[in-house]
């Protein structure tokens, strides 16, 4: 049997985030996803449940019903995700950051309160608007100094200003590029000129089932392969799949609760098979289904 096993040249860097006493680690593998028979997979894939800094008015009612009234309080919402649904961690979506009237200092203070309260590390995702995200993430980096928050996304238009703030205050970064391995590599190289690679997580963008998931799979798979099979140092960071929002804005997921659960679960499991080390999901029921499937596979 041994003669059929592969020995690969590369490995994925370990990225540890969270302050002392409540850290989690991504990556560290020297083989392909779930190939424990060929190498080491020291850290299993993690799943974060997404919470919003304001109530999610765009969610379908069958998704909002999983959380009830706690959606009006990020702290209570996070507590339910961790204590009731047993998520590995939570991801705060800064839905309010794109509003012109938002007070960024006050927003950062609320994020710090949440980060300080949690027994696990915090992920913070901006709204995907480069200028608004840069303002919000820089304020949050200062406010949460020492908490080693996983902040993102940083893109080619704002990586330098957000990256230097994250470097100064001890955070980790989610480095995002639009579904192109060459653009991902280019941004990683630029950022790593002043920011440590062992504090970077790649977000190659995630698409939902039926809406380009195959392309997301292909890009993630290629990133993982060039890192592990060929030892490309510029691509050795763990990957994150931000799945929830992509799935729950589809008409299929919004129109039917059971279909939505399966839509998100299938997308997540598929991107774990492509090489994601961390997934952000919205539905706790979908999360539990993915966990059962991973357990059976393992």
TrEMBL record:
Signal sequence segment? none
CO dehydrogenase/acetyl-CoA synthase delta subunit TIM barrel domain ranges (all copies): 14-252
Q: Name one Pfam family in it.
A: CdhD
| PANTHER family, per the entry | ACETYL-COA DECARBONYLASE_SYNTHASE COMPLEX SUBUNIT DELTA (PTHR36214:SF5), PTHR36214
The protein's name in its UniProt record: Corrinoid/iron-sulfur protein, small subunit
User: What is the species of this protein?
Assistant: Desulforudis audaxviator (strain MP104C)
Lineage start? Bacteria, Bacillati, Bacillota, Clostridia, Thermoanaerobacterales
């Amino acid at each position: 049997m041994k003669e059929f096993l592969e020995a690969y040249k590369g490995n994925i860097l370990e990225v540890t985030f969270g302050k002392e006493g409540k850290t989690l680690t991504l990556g560290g593998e020297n083989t392909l996803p779930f190939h424990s028979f060929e190498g080491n997979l020291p850290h299993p894939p993690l799943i974060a449940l997404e919470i919003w800094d304001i109530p999610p008015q765009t969610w379908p009612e069958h998704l909002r019903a999983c959380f009830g009234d706690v959606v009006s309080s990020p702290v209570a919402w996070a507590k339910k995700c961790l204590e009731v649904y047993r998520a590995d961690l939570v991801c705060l979506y800064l839905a309010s950051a794109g509003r012109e009237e938002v007070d960024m200092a006050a927003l950062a203070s609320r994020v710090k309160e949440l980060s300080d309260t949690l027994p696990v590390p915090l992920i913070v995702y901006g709204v995907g608007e480069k200028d608004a995200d840069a303002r919000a993430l820089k304020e949050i980096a200062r406010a949460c100094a020492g908490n080693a928050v996983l902040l993102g996304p940083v893109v080619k238009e704002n990586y330098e200003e957000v990256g230097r703030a994250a470097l100064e205050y001890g955070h980790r970064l989610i480095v995002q590029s639009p579904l192109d391995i060459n653009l991902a590599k280019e941004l990683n190289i630029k950022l790593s000129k002043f920011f440590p690679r062992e504090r970077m997580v790649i977000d190659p963008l995630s698409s939902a089932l039926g809406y380009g998931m195959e392309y997301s799979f292909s890009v993630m798979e290629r990133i993982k392969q060039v890192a592990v099979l060929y030892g490309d140092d510029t691509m050795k960071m763990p990957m994150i799949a931000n799945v929830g929002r992509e799935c729950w804005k589809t008409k299929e997921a919004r129109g039917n609760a059971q279909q939505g659960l399966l839509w998100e679960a299938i997308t997540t499991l598929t991107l774990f098979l492509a090489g994601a080390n961390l997934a952000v999901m919205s539905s706790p029921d979908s999360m539990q289904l993915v966990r059962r499937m991973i357990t059976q596979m393992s």
